[in-house]
UniProtKB/TrEMBL annotation:
The keyword Signal applies. Residues 1-21 form the signal peptide. Keywords: Periplasm, Receptor, Signal. PROSITE patterns: PROKAR_LIPOPROTEIN. NCBIfam families: dctP, TRAP_S1. It holds the Pfam family DctP. One of its GO terms (molecular function) is carbohydrate binding. This is Tripartite ATP-independent transporter solute receptor, DctP family. It comes from Pseudorhodobacter antarcticus. One of its GO terms (biological process) is transmembrane transport. It comes from the Bacteria. It is found in: Periplasm. The keyword Signal applies. One of its GO terms (cellular component) is outer membrane-bounded periplasmic space. The lineage of its organism: Bacteria, Pseudomonadati, Pseudomonadota, Alphaproteobacteria, Rhodobacterales.
Length: 324
């Protein structure tokens, strides 16, 4: 009698567990640490998805590059080993040509301009183009504006950069961008930058406030020049293999939850930018703000000439420039 009761109780527990366990858990990659806006935004997307599918579909974010560096995790997402991935558009440049356009230096006039473009037809065109790489483009996130930092000296003009070595994301555009400024570019994974600056393999790198801060790069490269050469959006993609396994209804739920995480991300980003700047400034970093951007913009003419090579890409540039 007692045994039957226990067995019955265990059965109830098992059923209860089954009812709350996720049927499908989508594994999502991010290079950033827990608490970083992109990580929190994807976690939030997962919460929405879980709630809306009655606990069937869940997302688990593997932060801090646990699944690898961006270039490798993109490949793994294409192969279906990773279900979802939040990455910069930069490492996509050599894979999906449309991503080159929002990765061009000084293409956006401001973050607002970038939001308008990525929320509009050009953004949709890029999300759709992900299909050509066996991926489903879900949403764009903020990546702030990127500026140069280094361990050697304050950079106040292009001339100051002559011969210096800067790490860039793994994309040819950024290699050419740095070359056009008279410096040398070393493409390398994000996770190797700290020690490479520390050991003098490179003089510096370039990034936004939150990444400069959370990576600790500000500790080893204390001169940060706010020339803001790039406003590269970030993207949340899903593996087409994983996406195709879902019902049409679940696919729609994934898309909607991703879209709904965008305003959450934008709010988190604004707050984190301010917090990161405050932390970096308090650490005694030298921030160079009196910088004339015009020569930097003018130096990018050959970069545009090299990458804006087809009528399709030219039209994207024009569409972006025409967006008010
Ligand atoms: C960050 C971005 C990451 C990664 C990193 C990098 O700003 O959020 O996705 O691209 O820069 O420089 O590699």
């Amino acid at each position: 009698m007692k045994q039957t009761l226990i067995a019955a109780m265990l059965g109830t527990v098992a059923m209860a567990t089954a009812a709350t366990a996720c049927e499908i858990t989508l594994r999502s990659s991010d290079t950033h640490p827990d608490g970083y806006p992109t990580v929190v935004a994807v976690q939030k997307m997962g919460e929405l998805l879980k709630e809306r599918t009655g606990d069937r579909l869940c997302v688990e974010v593997f932060h801090s590059a646990q699944l690898g560096e961006e270039k490798d995790t993109i490949e793994q997402t294409q192969f279906g080993v990773i279900d979802m991935n939040r990455v910069s558009l930069g490492p996509f440049n050599n894979i999906v040509e449309e991503t080159q356009i929002p990765s061009l230096p000084f293409i956006f006039r401001s973050t607002d301009h970038m939001h308008k473009v990525m929320d509009g037809p050009v953004g949709q065109q890029i999300l759709d183009a992900m299909a050509g790489a066996d991926l489903v483009g879900l949403a764009f996130y903020d990546g702030g504006s990127r500026s140069f930092y280094n361990s050697e000296k304050p950079i106040r003009s292009i001339a100051d950069m002559a011969g210096m070595k800067f790490r860039v994301m793994q994309s040819d555009i950024f290699v050419d961008m740095v070359a056009a400024l008279g410096a040398n570019a070393t493409p390398m994974p994000y996770g190797e930058v700290y020690s490479s600056i520390q050991t003098g393999v490179i003089d510096g790198a370039e990034n936004n406030w939150p990444s400069y801060e959370s990576s600790g790069h500000f500790e080893v490269a204390k001169y940060y020049t706010l020339n803001q050469h790039l406003i590269v959006p970030e993207i949340l993609v899903m593996s087409k293999i994983a996406y195709d396994k879902l019902s049409a209804e679940d696919q729609a739920a994934v898309r909607q939850a991703a879209k709904d995480s965008v305003p959450v991300m934008r709010e988190l980003w604004t707050a984190r930018e301010a917090a990161s700047e405050a932390k970096v400034r308090a650490a005694g970093t030298e921030i160079i703000t009196d910088i004339d951007k015009t020569p930097f913009i003018e130096a990018m003419v050959p970069v545009y000439a090299k990458y804006v090579t087809t009528p399709k890409l030219q039209k994207m540039v024009e569409d972006i420039q025409a967006t008010e």
